[in-house]
Amino acid sequence: MDTLAFHINPIPAQPWSEIAVSILADHGFNAFEDTEKGIIAYVDEESITSIEEIKDLLKQWADNASISCEIELERIEQKNWNAIWESDFQPVNVEDMLFIIAPFHEKPKTKGLVIEIQPQMSFGTGHHQTTWMMSKALMEFGRLPSKILDMGTGTGILAILAEKLGGKEIIAIDIEEWSAENTKENALRNNCVAIETFHGDIDLIENQKFGLILANINMNVLKLHMERYRDSLEPKGTLMLSGFFETDVPELMRIVESLGFERVKVFTKESWAALQLCLK
After folding, report:
1. Residues of CATH 3.30.70.270 domain(s) within the chain?
2. Distance CA 3, CA 68 (A)
3. β-sheet bridge partners, residue 278
4. Among 93, 117, 128, 92, residue whose Cα is nearest residue 243
5. How far apart are the C-alpha atoms of 174 and 134, rounded to whole Å?
6. Which of 210, 215, 280 lies closest to 244, judged by CA?
7. pTM value?
């Protein structure tokens, strides 16, 4: 199966490259690579309806945003995904509290926590602002509840961090099978024993209650799942959300407040945001 690489160079590159990632993640694209001018977005050809449909989507987005955007298409046979990650994956430092490294990095000398991951095709290396903010929120949370859900786990970073911070029972779920498998591998790599990983969607948590729910997913999915998150939290439970922009916070707050949540903290980083909420 051929892989399609869309070279997308918006002007200005930021925040529009990140916005393009958010849009394309909803249309079958499964990996992204940063470049000096923008991003390269990768998708299996069989995962999209047509190439022209994607080009039209990107053109319409650029026109609506009133930005200039160069788009070039490259067809790739048997792309080596690990080579892509290794060429671009630098160690991540979350305010000296947490370091995220790959197997080919030298382990840092630090008093902070260290998580080692092999990202493969999954989202969540820690480089993205949303993963960074969610990691920071967890590090600052204090004593974690015993049962935790990591919804849309990606590489498993948040689930692994939750166990290292004291979580006793962690459920990690992702709609992509390769992400679920990647999380299992990374959990073993970090000697985790409290993480159960499942391939599936929100229905997998039916009739379960959690003290903490982590959801670093795109805005549309968050809105779709919000009532299920509320129904799956213990009284006074915590919900941590990311995957949206600062400009989306007012809309999300209207939704969560109508469901009985109150705001605890807002985190921001380079136009992206994360929310820490408590169920009243």
Report:
1. 2-79
2. 26
3. 238, 262
4. 128
5. 17
6. 215
7. 0.73
Q: Could you say which architecture CATH assigns to the domain 128-279? A: 3-Layer(aba) Sandwich (3.40)
Please name which of 154, 183, 200, 203 lies closest in space to residue 25, comparing C-alpha atoms: 154
CA dist., res. 203 & res. 92, Å (int): 33
Tokens of 28: 């079958």
The rounded distance, in Å, linking the Cα atoms of 277 and 88 is: 33
Is residue 102 a contact partner of residue 89, using CB atoms and an 8 Å limit? yes
How many other CB atoms are there within 10 angstroms of residue 28's CB atom?
A: 15
User: E strand or H helix at 5, and its extent?
Assistant: strand 2-11
Tens of pLDDT, residue by residue over 39-84, are 888 887 777 778 888 888 888 888 888 888 898 888 876 545 555 5
Cα gap 119→158, rounded to integer Å: 13
Compute CA distances 258 → 80, 126, 255, whole Å. Answer: 46, 31, 5
**CB contact at 8 A, 248 and 217:** no
Q: What is the rounded CA–CA span in Å between residue 125 and residue 246?
A: 21
- Short-list 30, 18, 189, CA closest to 100: 189
Element (H, E) at 224: helix 219-231
Q: Is CATH 3.30.70.270 the right assignment for the domain spanning 2-79?
A: yes
- Which residue stretches of the chain have pLDDT < 50? 79, 121-124
Distance, in Å, from the CA atom of 108 to the CA atom of 134, rounded to the nearest integer, reads: 21
